[in-house]
Design brief:
The chain has about 210 residues and is mainly alpha-helical. It is about 70% helix and about 0% strand. It has 11 helices and no strands. The longest helix has 25 residues. It is globular and about 45 Å long. The mean pLDDT is about 85.
Length: about 210
């Protein structure tokens, strides 16, 4: 029961959208922002870079890393026979779902990159550093964050098998939810070209700024 309550708390906390809070508090353009993914990258491109950095760390550390840290080191969940070594997986799932499909934003939200970065850091430091390194290497090669993030997560998912099966499932779930969010966005397209562009480039058309 304690574990279920914790999951519910994590879900509602992850559903808090710091970008939306910032826009409502300082910019008053919430109606526009709901038409697109609402995360730190949106704030970076359209509003304030300082605010975007603060929001990114809020998403990654407070919403991503902190719940995992609490579950691992402050609450003894992993001793449950029903949960076993996979006890972090449901936490990771509700974190990403809450962030990407916020109950406070009519099931809209961000892309999930920041919260995934923080969550995976809390789950396994070494594997997370491999992921970050891969992302930077690929990004400096292709100069596009959309495919760089997808490729680095995919490669990291394979690498994670070296550590444990439970870690592999964590990365596989992240990969699945990333692709699902890209496909659905904040509206579901019917054109397969748009769907492919969303999956690979994380935007609807090749020259569109995301």
């Amino acid at each position: 029961m304690e574990y279920v309550i914790f999951l519910i708390i994590v879900y509602f906390f992850s559903s808090l959208n710091f970008s939306s809070i910032y826009l409502n508090k300082f910019k008053k353009d919430q109606s526009k922002s709901l038409k697109t993914h609402l995360g730190s990258s949106y704030i970076w491109k359209h509003h304030s870079k300082i605010a975007a950095i603060i929001i990114f760390f809020g998403d990654s550390i407070l919403k991503g890393f902190l719940p995992i840290f609490i579950a691992k080191f402050m609450i003894d969940f992993n001793q449950s026979g029903l949960i076993g070594e996979y006890y972090l997986i449901p936490i990771l799932i509700v974190q990403i779902i809450g962030n990407n499909w916020s109950i406070f934003l009519k099931l809209k939200g961000g892309r999930g990159m920041a919260i995934i970065i923080g969550s995976l850091l809390g789950i396994n430091l070494v594997m997370a550093l491999i992921l970050y390194s891969l992302y930077l290497i690929i990004y400096f090669k292709v100069r596009d964050g959309g495919p760089s993030w997808l490729i680095s997560i995919t490669i990291s998912c394979i690498f994670s098998l070296i550590f444990s099966t439970s870690l592999f499932f964590c990365y596989l779930i992240c990969l699945f939810l990333i692709i699902l969010k890209r496909i659905t966005g904040n509206s579901l397209p019917k054109d397969y070209k748009i769907i492919m562009n969303r999956i690979i480039l994380d935007r609807d058309i090749k020259n569109e700024n995301s």
